[in-house]
Amino acid sequence: MTKIDDVIAALRTGFSGTLIHPADAAYDTARTVMYGGYDRHPGLIARARTVADVQRVVDVARDTGIELAVRSGGHSNAGHSTTEGGLVLDLRDMTAIAVDPAQKTLTAESGATAIAVTRAALAHDLVVGFGDAGSVGIGGITLGGGVGYLVRKWGLTIDSLLAAEIVIADGRRLTASATDNPELFWALRGGGGNFGVVTSLTYALAELPAFTGGMLCLPATAETLAGFVAAAENAPDELSTIANVMPAPPMPFLPPELHGKLVILGMLAFAGPDADAQRALAPFRALARPYADFVKPGPYTQMYPPEDPDYHPTAVARNMFMDHIGLSEARTIIDRLDQSDAVFRVAQIRVLGGASARVPADATAYGHREAAIMVNLAAFWTTPEDQAKQQAWVDRFRADLTQQTQGAYVNFLMAEGHERIRSAYPGAIWDRLRLVKRQYDPTNLFRLNQNIAPADA
């Protein structure tokens, strides 16, 4: 018998979920992940329904030595939600959500999506921030940090995390919080999926009785881009922004002559009354005459655009932090994007600060509290030859923009090697994470991730 045969035989008992085999009609759909560059064929997909199912899969993976991929929403930039020939533990059937409006808390299973959790909280005028895509699974985005549209007002997703339920490598089910297994709780807030399978998460919710947000499309000039960043830095904490410098999409709200030309597609989110929002938004609208302005009062869910489940882009991307973006940096960004021949390319700029910067640097495993700006650079590719070309382009682009602030945000890393993973965890954070890893996963069972190896005994 092969290793996968041993796994299949073992999971015929003690597992109440669904086992999907390569010969099954549902297999191709079940194995597909968000990003199209990872066409992998797991030997088995185990869709868990209960924590006991998760424990059973972890036990079998440990005992057989098979490569284990853990999938929440399938959005891993590095393709870690799937495996070639190994075992996928798929949490997408674990989606229960419970809101306690009186205590302002929410507990959700890790397979729930950001949009589902957001809707459940908003039913009580409450909210917790995730990222900028509604279909992302809350497990993955939370464990890496969670940088989204509420980051300046209430910090990262991990800054609202109260507790996590986790199955560790020896199969035990633990609770991690400020009082239960606190060192594990520290590591889970930014350390990714290195320490076990998180099955549920409990968050503190914030009141959000009023919200204004949406898309503001502006001309892509160096002056406008530098002004956008400056306005975002000077904005009140209630306003979080993302500036996407990219070719204009062929959408009906933009004139045809603009399609394919660079624009600044800004996403602006104000957590508070509309009168305050309008004052905060005025500097952005004054930068240039907008091509389109869809920033308006409404539910926070309007920040999550519709998503095509059959859209699986192939791209190479690089993440970095920057100290500032003035006219010189803005010109470099626009020039590099103009010179690219990629079918699609983007520089995404997130001004940080606010509440996210007021958390002590060692309070969580996310080690970039002082970073002013996060930048993502991406180029889409169509063939393997084009992939290599675009990868070289984004690497040069990142080098051109590199400043004193170093590092990377782990959730946006692709498969870039050990040094880039190391850069996500500066200073003593890396060594501390390795000690936690040694305690809870000494054999590195959970290694299909941005891996942190256990400290030497």
Care to describe what's here?
The mean pLDDT is 97. The protein is an alpha+beta fold. The protein has three domains: 3-90, Uridine Diphospho-n-acetylenolpyruvylglucosamine Reductase, domain 2; 97-207 and 428-440, Uridine Diphospho-n-acetylenolpyruvylglucosamine Reductase, domain 3 (2-Layer Sandwich); 211-412, Vanillyl-alcohol Oxidase, Chain A, domain 3 (3-Layer(aba) Sandwich), CATH 3.40.462. The strands form four sheets. Strands 12, 13, 14, 15, 16, 17, 18 and 19 form an eight-stranded antiparallel beta sheet that branches. It has a five-stranded antiparallel beta sheet with strand order 5-6-10-8-9. Helices cover 28% and strands 23% of the residues. α8 packs across α10. The radius of gyration is 22 Å and the shape is globular.
- Provide mean pLDDT, rounded: 97
Q: Give the C-alpha Rg.
A: 22 Å
Relative helix content = 25-40%
Main sheet overview? 8 strands, antiparallel
Distance between the termini: 35 Å
Query: How many strands?
Result: 19
